[in-house]
Write a structure and sequence with these properties.
The complex is a heterodimer of chains A (293) and B (266).
Chain A: H1 11-44, H2 56-70, H3 72-104, H4 106-121, H5 128-135, H6 139-150, H7 152-163, H8 167-175, H9 180-217, H10 223-232, H11 236-264, H12 270-292
Helix pairs in contact in A: 2-11, 3-4, 3-6, 3-7, 3-9, 3-10, 5-6, 6-9, 7-9, 9-10, 9-11, 10-11
Chain B: E1 20-30, E2 36-46, E3 50-54, H1 61-69, E4 76-81, E5 84-85, E6 93-96, H2 108-112, H3 114-119, H4 124-136, H5 152-165, E7 170-174, H6 182-199, E8 202-207, H7 210-216, E9 219-224, E10 229-235, H8 250-264
Parallel strand pairs in B: 3-8, 3-9, 6-7, 7-8
Antiparallel strand pairs in B: 1-2, 1-4, 4-5, 9-10
Helix pairs in contact in B: 4-5, 7-8
The chains are: A mainly alpha (293), B alpha/beta (266).
GO molecular function, one term (chain B): ATP hydrolysis activity
Family (chain B): Belongs to the ABC transporter superfamily.
Keywords (chain B): ATP-binding, Nucleotide-binding, Transport
Chain lengths: 293, 266
């Protein structure tokens, strides 16, 4: 088969990418270490107050201490992660659910759109104290705040994706005598998948923000609490260490979403598409083999 | 008897002829009081014939096709397919568009199977048929490629296989190869002739290319715009199978001139 020219990387491309990869990593590393070095010196010789900007080595030491010896950070991390993920799931389910209803029913869309717009233009984080007043001090209000601020991207992306169906494809389905349900599941939904996934990627970061802001306002556990505790004690190295952990957590969630995107929207990723193509050929091999026999 | 009567030549076939698969009398489609897309078209299309609809943009040829497909409703007049009035899409009628309209998340063979899935459960026999049809349109070895891995011409071949998978005997083709380059289009046209001959279908083929219209068809329905009218039906006498060299003969060029004159007079 001559598929190699159609969007798949040829072996030479891969080799070139590998050749430059080591160089690219070295350059990035050099830049990073350079910045750290300048920072280290600036802080050590008090060009900047170490209370404002602690030395990178001090941050690293706090980080190691926190992660390896103290151990309580895992509990707080677990709380925040749980709040963020639960907020993300609830917000996404509500967002996608409303969008599906709005996408399938024109009058429902007209009725809810003013409220959706009102909610979108409101800085929803301002609702956080109200939510806490309603739901108390546990994890529930943080989950609710996360859900509230993250539901919009999945909602608007799903709606856009569902409504943005190729008119010819729609006519093709109708000419086959397809029912509305079939058009939804076989055309509209898969067609919207790439943009839905893009919305979910944005939503997971927003849910994490929601959880931490909730913890800032009132909580006894979670990374936001840890952050406040260290900052109030002017233990800036530990505050920065908490920030590093949050960055790693945010990145891990982002990578997870990228992976889900790669897995679900296989037709938009060349390598996955080629793998799927091979998998399907294998699944059909029995049928074709019997035929040839 | 002429198989097709235009609205200029008064339609005389009032009795039901089993050989007529599509029949229209004073068929009108107006989108509102100002836009009349199709104005009083009358014609009969014989079983197994290949009919081209040719005319400039806005002459109502796509509208006529969508009326026959049951995708849009008529405003007035009569339209019947296989003796029944058209009230919606039917399994007897299949349609193919200018763009391949493939589902990019499905492999070629899964795209071909779509009509079967829409109609109900898919059996191994259906799957084998889909594989055979892909072979028929020249896509052996590409059954498990995704649309993005195929060229434009190959994508249209998949669309053609999908059309044949419907099992419909009346095929409506709306400028199916219009977006492809001239060489690919010519080759696909030849293959289309071979294939529809194989499956013994009645074909309505929309194009704005006069030579293509004549080359493919038994009859050419010449349409003129504003409002969309069926100006004349031209019989094409050439024998089948046809070769590309036919397009260089004086008889062929005389027919092209005739159609051009009809179109130019409006």
């Amino acid at each position: 088969m001559s598929l190699a020219t159609d969007g798949n990387l040829s072996m030479t491309d891969v080799a070139q990418a590998r050749g430059s990869l080591a160089g690219r990593v070295a350059r990035h590393l050099a830049l990073f270490l350079g910045v750290m070095l300048v920072w280290e010196f600036a802080s050590t010789y008090e060009f900047v107050d170490p209370l404002i900007l602690p030395r990178p080595t001090a941050i690293a030491a706090s980080l190691v201490n926190m992660v390896l010896y103290q151990g309580t950070v895992w509990f707080h991390l677990g709380v925040t992660l749980w709040e963020a993920v639960a907020g993300f799931v609830i917000g996404s389910v509500i967002g996608i659910g409303l969008a599906v209803a709005a996408g399938l029913n024109d009058s429902f869309r007209r009725y809810i759109s003013p409220y959706i717009i009102a909610l979108q233009v409101t800085p929803r984080i301002a609702l956080a104290p109200i939510v806490i007043a309603w739901l108390g001090f546990g994890m529930m209000p943080k989950i609710a705040i996360g859900a509230l601020i993250c539901f919009f991207p999945p909602f608007i992306n799903t709606l856009t994706g569902l409504l943005n169906v190729d008119e010819d494809a729609n006519e093709m389905f109708r000419s086959l005598g397809a029912k509305k349900r079939q058009i939804f599941f076989s055309l509209m939904l898969p067609n919207a998948m790439p943009i839905i996934m893009a919305g979910l990627k944005t939503a997971i970061s927003l849910a994490l923000i929601g959880a931490i802001v909730g913890e800032f306002i009132s909580a006894s556990e979670g990374m936001g609490v840890l952050m406040q505790r260290y900052t109030f004690a002017l233990n800036m190295a530990s505050s920065f260490a908490v920030l590093v952990i949050l960055t790693v957590m945010g990145y891990a969630l982002f990578v997870l979403m990228e992976w889900a995107d790669n897995w679900l929207v296989y037709w938009r990723h060349d390598a996955r598409m080629t793998a799927m193509s091979r998998k399907k050929a294998k699944a059909w091999a029995g049928l074709l083999g019997r035929r040839q026999a | 008897m002429n198989a097709i009567a235009s609205n200029l030549v008064a339609a005389s076939t009032s009795h039901i002829d089993p050989d007529i698969v599509i029949s229209a009398r004073d068929l009108v489609k107006a989108f509102n009081s100002e836009v009349v897309a199709l104005d009083r078209a009358s014609f009969d299309i014989k079983r197994g014939s290949f009919v081209s609809l040719v005319g400039p943009s806005g002459c109502g040829k796509s509208t006529l096709l969508r009326l026959v497909a049951g995708l849009i409703g008529k405003s007035a007049g009569e339209l019947s397919v296989l003796g029944h009035g058209v009230s919606g899409p039917s399994h007897e009628v299949g349609m193919m568009f200018q763009r391949p309209t493939l589902l990019e998340w499905r492999t070629a063979v899964e795209n071909v199977l779509l009509p079967t899935e829409v109609q109900g459960a898919t059996t191994d026999a259906d799957r084998k048929r889909a594989i055979d049809l892909l072979q028929l349109v020249g896509l052996k070895d590409f059954e498990f490629s995704f649309p993005r891995q195929l060229s434009g011409g190959m994508q249209q071949r998949v669309a053609l296989a999908r059309l044949l998978q419907t099992g419909a005997n009346i095929l409506l083709l709306d400028e199916p190869f219009g977006a492809l380059d001239e060489f690919t289009r010519e080759r696909l046209n030849l293959e289309l002739l071979r294939i529809v001959d194989d499956v013994d279908a009645t074909v309505l083929f929309v194009t704005h290319n006069i030579s293509e219209a004549i080359f493919l068809a038994d009859q050419v329905m010449v349409m003129t715009p504003r409002p969309g009218r069926l100006a004349k039906v031209v019989d094409v006498p050439f024998e089948r199978p046809r070769e590309i060299s036919l397009m260089q003969t004086p008889e062929f060029n005389r027919l092209v001139g005739e159609v051009r004159t009809i179109l130019g007079g409006h």
